[in-house]
Amino acid sequence: MTEAAVHIEPATMLVRLKIWRFNAQTGEKELRDYEIDAPEWACLLDVLDLIKDKVDGTLAYRKSCRMMICGSCGMRMDGKAVLACKERMKPIVDSGHVPVISAMGNLPIVKDLVVDMGPFWNKIKAVKPWLDPGYDEVAERERVVSQQQMNVIHKEALCIMCGCCVSECNSMESDPDFLGPAALAKGMRFVGDARDHDDIGRLNSYNEEHGIWDCTRCYFCNERCPKGVDPRDAIAKLGAESIKQGIDHDMGAKHANWFVTSAKTTGWLRETELVPKTQGVVSAIKQTKFALKLFRHGKVPLPFPPHVAEEVQESRALFDLVKQQGRDGALGIVQGERGLARIDQDAPEGSSGGWGSRDQADITPGKRPTRGKGGEA
Amino acid sequence: MEATHDVLVVGAGCAGMRAAIEAFDQGADVALLSKIHPVRSHSGAAEGGINAALGNASEDDPEKHAYDTVKGADYLGDQDAIQALCDEAPEDVYQLERWGAVFSRTEDGRIAQRPFGAAGEPRTAYAADITGHVLVHVLYEQVMKRDIPTYEEYFAWKLVIDDDRCQGVIAWDLLNGGLKTIGAKTVILATGGAGRLYVGTTNAYACTGDAMSMALRVGVPLKDMEMMQFHPTTLAPTGILITEGCRGEGAYLLNSDGDRFLERYAPNAMELASRDVISRAEQTEIDEGRGIDGNVLLDLRHLGAEKIHERLHGTRELSMTYAAVDPIHEPIPVRPGAHYHMGGVDTDLDGLTSITGLYAAGECACVSVHGANRLGGNALMETITFGRRAGRAAAEWALTHTTVSVPPSIEADSMRELGTLLDRRDGERPWAIRDELALTMHQNFGVFRREEQMTEQGRIVARLRERYERVVVDDKGDIFNNDLTQALELGFLLDLAECMIVAGLARKESRGAHARPHDYPDRNDDEFMRHTITTLDEGGRVTLDWKPVTVTKWQPQERNY
Lengths: 377, 561
Ligand SMILES: Cc1cc2nc3c(=O)[nH]c(=O)nc-3n(C[C@H](O)[C@H](O)[C@H](O)COP(=O)(O)OP(=O)(O)OC[C@H]3O[C@@H](n4cnc5c(N)ncnc54)[C@H](O)[C@@H]3O)c2cc1C
Ligand code: SF4
Ligand code: SF4
Ligand code: FES
Description:
The complex is a heterodimer of chains A (377) and B (561). Chain A is elongated and about 60 Å long. In chain A, a hairpin with a 2-residue loop joins β6 (109-111) and β7 (114-115). In chain A, α11 packs across α12. Helix content of chain A is 40%, strand content 11%. Chain A is built from 16 helices and 7 strands. By secondary structure, chain A is of the alpha+beta class. In chain B, α3 packs across α10 and α12 runs antiparallel to α13. Chain B has 3 domains: 3-227 and 342-398, FAD/NAD(P)-binding domain (3-Layer(bba) Sandwich); 233-336, Succinate dehydrogenase/fumarate reductase flavoprotein, catalytic domain (Flavocytochrome C3, Chain A, domain 1), CATH 3.90.700; 408-529, Fumarate reductase/succinate dehydrogenase flavoprotein-like, C-terminal domain (Methane Monooxygenase Hydroxylase, Chain G, domain 1, Up-down Bundle), CATH 1.20.58.100. Chain B has helices spanning 14-25, 62-72, 79-99, 131-146, 210-217, 245-248, 275-287, 304-311, 313-323, 378-399, 408-423, 431-444, 451-469, 482-506, 525-528; strands spanning 3-10, 30-34, 50-51, 113-114, 124-125, 150-152, 154-162, 165-173, 179-189, 222-223, 228-235, 252-254, 296-299, 332-341, 344-346, 358-360, 365-366, 530-536, 542-548. With 561 residues, chain B is an alpha/beta fold. In chain B, β18 (530-536) and β19 (542-548) form a beta hairpin. In chain B, the strands form 4 sheets. In chain B, strands 1, 2, 6, 7, 8, 9 and 16 form a 7-stranded mixed β-sheet that branches. In chain B, strands 17-15-10-18-19 form a 5-stranded mixed β-sheet. In chain B, strands 11-14-13-12 form a 4-stranded antiparallel β-sheet. In chain B, 36% of the residues lie in helices and 18% in strands. The chains are: A alpha+beta (377), B alpha/beta (561). Chains A and B meet through α1 of A and α3, α4, α7, α9 and α12 of B. One iron/sulfur cluster is lined by residues 159-165, 181-182, 185, 225, 227, 229, 231 of chain A. One iron/sulfur cluster (SF4) binds next to α7, α10 and α11 of chain A.
């Protein structure tokens, strides 16, 4: 048989789980134990599938892609939001730990592990989540933007809207109206997009109550995001940009400290990255256009050479910082921000985070999740 | 009836959302209906890119794109449809960019393009290795901007046909429970592929071919259903896709001897040969004992850590999470897996099916631009271009016609049918039938096909269908009862398997994805340069017919890479 080799019986393991079941119709809530044989390669999602097939067809959870891209399968394992399709079970089984699976936090439960994502999407919709080119632009072809400019929003564009960050958001627990990490990261995706022409409007709205300044900087969102979006960093960038543009009407004194650090570290936004120096004419023109716009708003001085030179100094310093973090380019600069934040949080030496760091399931049973260095398997 | 619309789009992946946006912009009252939230659609999993002759990386033009597509399709594609796709693709891609798609860029700030299998020019526009994700999100942004009403987590089950017209859809409301009827002057089907027919597939759990079967059941013909593409690089054991972008960036395929075995199968194009060619080469290596545990190796190491980080980050993440292999240091074990259904609902160039008011677009449709073998990057392009065309045509029709009627008897019949299923207490649950179907399809209707295996598979499917008649659903509740919808999905899959087998047996030649090296090793243009058409007859049996291929200017030639 030609494909026989494809179906070599895999080694199996006995997986034990506890699942919080919830029936909204009856209001019943119960923590139930499950035990099932699963192949050693199984992720949490595969185990739930086996339970649904062979033990209890009424178990409800969402799934689709089973490859960390659709954002369906957010849920909690041992109280921390995860994507079920990302969590390998083998290490957990080996450690003898019996994880508890429950629905995500900060969202109403519909049934078992299914939450109502309505409030989540309403907040996304509240940040005006589409590109506003500002005028009826009929470009002949595509707009011309440099890769460096696009890199500014690379992380934000990775968001799969899974809700893991919202589930763990500290501020949202006390203020359900807080826009929250996912929506604000989506906001940054447009504010940071050189093609968007409503930064001022956006920043004004994100500066209102329940906006960026209501974030408590707990960093849980960064920690739990399965895609490396780092929503807290996005919020910091929005904050820094707001301050630069003089939009800080809701900023209390309690934020002043934070502001100093952030403005220093995220000063790269827009004026940034030595753009006029290192890139072609086109992007320099784009940059200038943007600067002119700000100038019209009376927010910044015209960024012609002397100003640029100043920025270069600042950016140089940043660049060095970034180098220390082991990455370069705009992404690195983002990490520079986090680097500082981490020092601030007393993070262990050398923990770099970022793209590479989320390549592995980061659950160590019984411990707070850690993020290893990028590149280590 | 719950509500009525001018246009109801069933499915909210790239094809469905593009169709809805277009219908909206034409002034129609349009709604989307999807069994999962739009951004969860499997279009989001597309990694590699989208083909359009933008000419940003080389001298390119739509004519070259069309020729590559015709040839890649092994001359089973309709050349008028291919021409339309290739001519309109560039403007459609620019439109996506203007809406805000985060494409990767060239040095001079234009949309970057990379080489892809069987393409004569670097023509695949991309966003790192998350192209589909970027497109799904930009389209959903535009859906939100237009505030297009969306029936989220509604599972479409039946089409309402009355007065020889399609007038709506009957769907199960997952969140609240209950059958809901949505009336519409026109319905566009866009439910994507059916990879779940196979154990090793790159497709999501949601890819169960629902609309193909729904259309079949109301008498609409399905075209070229035997044409299931196997992608050469899927990860063991789950079938998760490793993008062709890897080979585009220069990765090697190696056998257990460490040889780049494609030297013997496609000496010129090597790793960039067409998918069917590479899948067969791999399967031959594996069958002849030069595989490694049923796999071959995809080697990225020589690309270097930096390039892998920058361009193939997602691939590395997948490979590390699902195979515990870091491609910077080790080659990735891969094998062919079911990937893309070239066949589907037979439509014209505007997505119109044989029934007035019923349209289809995207992977569930067969226009046909992919013929017997789809080129990487052409599927996303098809969803956009033909999604747009279907959206426009459906809106135009709807805006010139007024009435919608859904006879109460249709709703009552559906209620009764569903009631029978839900009330059944004793019997088998669906999962074993589902698993057996997927395993046997893989064994008997896979990369290589033989007469006796296909015949045997026909018998197996018939037996599975008997079992399915007595299937029970565990969950009897209303709220989020996807135990019920998964059972209904299995019913769809069984229909499609039957069509595939009938069509596969009839095509006594080897063409594109339909490879019969043991009994009919050659392409036979005299007899089989035509589409298979499968329909259900009065008695519910699958019948076979043929339809000519539209040839405009490219006469069939031998296909070698
Ligand atoms: C892993 C992978 C990678 C790929 N990479 C590429 C690539 O790089 N380039 C390329 O061109 N192509 C690629 N393809 C192919 C391409 O992505 C798909 O063919 C295309 O995205 C299909 O889009 P669609 O809109 O037709 O369907 P989908 O995106 O699958 O959407 C289907 C929609 O229908 C809905 N639906 C399904 N059934 C029902 C029902 N019963 N009721 C209600 N709603 C329903 C779903 O909820 C979903 O919204 C790839 C495919 C896969 C699997
Ligand atoms: S850092 Fe801010 S946004 Fe993120 S989880 Fe904490 S409070 Fe919420
Ligand atoms: S920011 Fe991360 S955790 Fe939050 S929704 Fe997006 S991908 Fe999920
Ligand atoms: S199933 Fe899609 S992210 Fe987990």
